[in-house]
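Justification of computing resources. Each target in the renewal requires a structure prediction run like the one illustrated here; the chain below, 314 residues long, is used simply to show the kind of job we budget for.
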Amino acid sequence: MKYRKLGKNGPEISVIGFGSWAIGGAGWASAWGNQDDAQSVDSIRAALDAGINFYDTAAVYGLGHSEVVLGEALRGDRDKVVIATKCGLVWDEAGSITKSGAYDSVIREAEASLKRLGTDYIDLYQMHWPDSEVAAEETMRAMDKLVQDGKVRFVGVSNYNVEQLERSLTVRHVDSLQPPYSILRPAAEQELLPFCLANGIGVVAYSPLTSGLLSGNYTYDTKFGEDDWRSRNKAHTGEGLRSNVDRAEKLKVIAARYDITLPQLAVAYDLAHPALTSALVGVRKPSHILSVLPAIDVVLDEAVLAEIRAIAAG
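Resulting structure tokens:
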């Protein structure tokens, strides 16, 4: 495994991170379908054995369940790992999810996450989505208080734009940004990644495989169950799916030249950007994480990167 420093102040983390969205299981609005907890634990342990030390989850994944599974699986190795979780999405008894970046909510959510994770501190605490009803400065003041109290070590944000980052930086340094970033979703390259690079903010990219579109396994006829959020997503259904499958087939030709898989190419593409610290790979079973590990040794030159971007744009 290889490691990079998270921004100018953060810890050394593995360049491939463990994404814990799917291990939240079924029964909530953005679920990936049923998930076997024992298989989730096996995946977490396999990643640790492979040298991965960065595990990312969120309170909302499975409405708390992902945090519980992750915490239990890593309990005996807490000092070996960097655990990242997120706040800002809260739910009621009916499972209805709303955004909340208010000071008191952030503090309260952190306490709940600490209990579910079974730990005294959170290594990286991130605001999951910006709350348009609450000033970014207020949210960041709550995050800073958690750091002062020793409950959080580093502070990050997810899905923020440059303006929201700038406002957050007036309160304290932001250690990391977690944006969607992949061959098929390259928008972060325009402003976000250069801004983070210039300001010492680490970048943890999520969905480098674009939620499976770059897995190499999809066809025009791929269908998702009703309990899988992708069944309601334009990129994964109808003409959107057909277009993305066509792009994936063209990208497989480039991967074959390197004697690697399409998922390995996708992760290598993300890691080629100088602003990137780590690429999060969503995991449901051990093979999902172990099969992409060779990507850390793949070097893509500028000509190939341009070729990849042309396919994505086409």
